Amino acid sequence: MRVVVVGKGGREHALAQKIKESNLLSELWVCPGNPGMAKAGINCAPVETAEAIEAFCLENNVSLVVIGPEALILSDLKARLEMQGIPCFAPTKNVAQLESSKLFCKNILHDADVPTAKVLVTHAIDEAMAAIEAHNFASPLVLKADGLAAGKGVWVCENKAQALEGLTNLTTQFGFPLLIEECLIGKELSAFALCDGKDFVILGTACDYKRITPDLFSANTGGMGAFSPCDFITQEDTETIHQIFVKTLNCLHEKNLSYQGFLFAGLMKTAKGLYVLEYNVRMGDPETQALVPRIQSDLLELISAATKHELAGKQCKLSEEVSVHVVAVSKGYPEAKMLLGAELNLPQTLNTQLYFAGVSEKDQKLVNSGGRVLGVTALASSKETARTQAYDDIQKIAYEGMYFRKDIGQ
Ligand SMILES: Nc1ncnc2c1ncn2[C@@H]1O[C@H](COP(=O)(O)OP(=O)(O)O)[C@@H](O)[C@H]1O
Ligand SMILES: [Mg+2]
């Protein structure tokens, strides 16, 4: 098979690396990829727009495309490729509303009878104010903008003043509808499935670290690290996760919205069991870099089967080993003003898997050019050992202003 992976981050590096192991593969490109991946031996093609990717795939007789980032899943890329007869592993734009509209997602969860936080959907300031006034703040209140908000659309409010501030902030930026949710208390995890429109295989679970420091109130980032599998779920929870995917996918199917692609469930384990916080219509970044190295099945074979609706009866085999993935970022991240352009000093060899994200090339050297620069994943028999190995290795890498959290996997 001649395969294109679309995207340029650590997630796409991990996906491409795993797809490269497949016996079914004859050629692989990442579009556009990044110079770090290229140095690691992955073909990168400098095409980024839907139009340019379509032309590239036609010129190069590409037989399968896998889209990483949500922005391109929500573009017309899949429709373009399928018009040309090129299978594209991603959900259609229509069903991708599962991520791009929190209201759409809530309605599906409700219809599918999947546990989720109780919600009031408000359409005007008065209505939202009344809901805030009526809440006693014995527990927080969660305000959510409906559409894509790049991690800035959710406020977990401890008191009335905060909720009123959140209301103004969110409605000024994103307008209505505004979702007002009960606050769930528990621990968060993510679960991933690979879906063919009707059937699916579970890829596994992971936990990520969203804040820039261990302080719960520090700035939100794209993700500073992850480990896989989640270590606080029971066998019963694992079965519940399976049921959550079954119910959701069946409900979509019944609505003529069959779902093909990776499906990411954001879950909260509460005292009353597992609840779905949200769905994303793609793999997570950095959860992918923790989860995918544990996959022992042929990932390309599974993806290819999914595009032909042939997943029934298949499974994804995972290593028993535990992974820890640590992300290194640029100084200043997640603020817009960052220290960029510093040369990366990389050792000749590492014992872990190195994935590149925000890097570019200057005078044939790699320099940091984005917030999240790179990450390393260690696999070991225990999380503690994987953690030690990941930190041993990331400390062998250096660039000016390099920062990473010290508590991933603790
Ligand atoms: N109902 C809820 N109860 C408690 N925390 C929540 C709730 N909804 C969201 N959160 C918190 O806010 C974060 C972001 O919410 P999420 O729905 O995942 O939106 P997004 O990832 O699109 O910003 C979650 O990871 C979780 O920590
Ligand atoms: Mg989320």
TrEMBL record:
- The kind of enzyme this is, by top-level EC class, is ligase
- Give the enzyme's EC designation: 6.3.4.13
Which PROSITE patterns does the record associate with it? ATP_GRASP
| Biochemical pathway | Purine metabolism; IMP biosynthesis via de novo pathway; N(1)-(5-phospho-D-ribosyl)glycinamide from 5-phospho-alpha-D-ribose 1-diphosphate: step 2/2
> May I ask which residue range the UniProt record assigns to the signal sequence?
none
Q: Which domain of life is it from?
A: Bacteria
Q: What are the coiled-coil residue ranges?
A: none
MF terms from GO for this chain are: phosphoribosylamine-glycine ligase activity
Which key words are in the record?
ATP-binding, Ligase, Nucleotide-binding, Purine biosynthesis
Q: Which residue intervals define the domain ATP-grasp in the entry? A: 106-308
InterPro entries for the chain = ATP-grasp, ATP_grasp_subdomain_1, PreATP-grasp_dom_sf, PRibGlycinamid_synth_ATP-grasp, PRibGlycinamide_synth, PRibGlycinamide_synth_C-dom, PRibGlycinamide_synth_C_sf, PRibGlycinamide_synth_N
The answer to keyword rRNA-binding applying to this record is no
Q: Which family does it belong to?
A: Belongs to the GARS family.
Listed PANTHER family: PHOSPHORIBOSYLAMINE--GLYCINE LIGASE, PHOSPHORIBOSYLAMINE--GLYCINE LIGASE, CHLOROPLASTIC
UniProt name for this protein: phosphoribosylamine--glycine ligase
* Protein source organism: Bdellovibrio reynosensis
Q: What is the lineage of its organism?
A: Bacteria, Pseudomonadati, Bdellovibrionota, Bdellovibrionia, Bdellovibrionales
